[in-house]
Specification:
The protein is mostly helical. It has a domain of 38 residues. It is 45% helix and 0% strand. The longest helix is centred in the last third of the chain and has 41 residues. The chain is elongated and about 100 Å long. The N and C termini lie far apart (105 Å).
Amino acid sequence: MRPSQILRSGGDGEIGKYGKYLGGWGNFGSQTQKGVMSFALSANRQRPLAGTLNAAIFNVWRRFSHQVLYIAPPMIIAYVTMGWAIERNEYLNSKAGRLEYGEAEE
């Protein structure tokens, strides 16, 4: 007794070059479509990187110029504040700072 054959939905699909089932998707027995066009271009005629470098430079500049006013002022303020805090910390931990602000030792 041999096992039953596999049932596939969507109609019978063709067997491809290597004996693989190509599927039955879209094979519902309807009429073929009309007016569908397809175009192709040879791989030798394509220029996949045409204008990439030029577009990248100008796109980076455009994006940078639109965002710099959102990023630069907080970064400058943070840099100046950090510089002030480091300088103040060094002064307070120095001999002169301890004499001025430190408590008297007993």
